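User: My collaborator and I are trying to settle a disagreement about how two of our proteins should look. Neither of us wants to argue from intuition anymore, so we agreed to look at predicted structures for both before our next call. Could you fold the first one, then the second, and keep them clearly separated?

Assistant: That sounds like a sensible way to settle it. I'll keep them separate. The first protein:
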Amino acid sequence: MKPINVNLCGYSQHLEPFRHHFGNGLETYIVRLQFEGVCQALIEGEYAAIEPGELMLFRPGDIYDLRIGKAENPVKASADYFIMSTGPGMDEWWANRQRPTKVKIAEDSKLISQWHQLIAEKRRLDGGDPQLVTLLVSTLLLMLDRAIDEAPSAQSSSAFHAIRMKNYIEANVSHTLRLEDVARDSGLSVSRAVHLFKEHYGTSIIGYAQQVRMAHALELLHHSPLSLEQIAAETGLGSYAYFHRIFRAQHGISPGAYRKKHAAKSWRSE
């Protein structure tokens, strides 16, 4: 893995006018995600409003001008996550595909959690372990790439709500999952959330959650020594009786028989 050097990273909240300006061009890459409020940034020669969920990507040599509020006007809170970095790992990542200067992505708690891990590592007195920093940044960049790939081409609010619900389900599927919780996380009513999710993914919220749970259950059956009852609990499927019923309905065989069959195949291949 090629090294990535993080000059600065963090979470910034601005309650006063602020400007970050590199009129002669950047010396680092900048990855910046607007998290709260609105700011102004120079995008392809023109100043554009940057709203929550919008990701900005700049490379060395780019002119960078970020503005938050004006001295004569009250400033509404603006917050963002950012990385300023250099190194061959960043060069390789940037060259891997065409990079948009600005793109809207869906909010994802897993992505934000990864950003927090990087920030915490860099706050160590020794500046963080270089290999771990490279790994954390590389993982975050891959997650951002996936978020960009999954961003709807139409950039409609309903599509972003659907993606946010999908991300919430995947992050919380091992626990009891209520429609009210999924809808609340996206700021929607239950009826609106149910309709949007079905419209965009062709399945219900609960149906998708069960797909994710069953995929996890299969992994545990293949690679884990957990009992069938433990697998049912670990995946959020609840009781073994329910796990047994839906597993047999999908695979035509009980979970126990499936595990024995898979184990027998593994022994023969060794």
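The second protein, kept apart from the first:
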Amino acid sequence: MLTNNLNGANNQAAGNANTVVGQAPASETADMFTKLLVAQIRNQDPLEPSDPSQFVNQLSQLSQTEAMQSLAKLNSTSASVLESIQTLALGAQVGSDITVKTHSVRLDGTPLKASITLPAASATNTVTLTGSDGVKHDVQLGSRGSGPQTFSIDPVALGLAPGKYDIKVQTSAGALDAIEVIGRLDSVRMSAGGGVVLKVAGIGDVAPSSVTGFNGKSGASLAAANSSTAN
């Protein structure tokens, strides 16, 4: 009976130790684990003492758990700091023109500047804008050589109503993955999920990973900034 009771206490102490390691903070875990380990040693069966290697394994598990908790906390802190730095850096670019790789645009009557990169000369190049109503509008770019090719989209000249349009480019060799559109960076904010979101004129909300270039402030933006400073 004595042996059974002692073994039961021994097993319960071990189980409690594992539970505490999994739930308590690191400092409390170490303190509670030590107390439970001492209780486990005191209540072991004197006729069948526990293998010392079990205690070593438990201490090793505690150290590993504390190390993992510290690493997770460090990674979380580092990610938060990097996001803050990224937000501040991008915030300094508000008002600048940036180049964004995109599959859609938001037209409001203002012409957009865009570009494509052709791997080889193409005799026919067609930009297709598809509105929310499913109607497609083609813009012929004509024959183009290889390399970067710039063009503009004038919604008024094309008779396009304001709204969001999917945009694709078809060349003689096939469709391009996406085009690059130049727009003004209007704002930088944090999303509900903690990520950074950029609001770009002519495009809408985009992720920082979609940005392919920073082009500085246009003449109009600089004039507005100088006027604001003067006032």
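Some points you might bring to the call about the second protein. The longest helix spans residues 52-91. Residues 77 and 180 are 34 Å apart (CA to CA).
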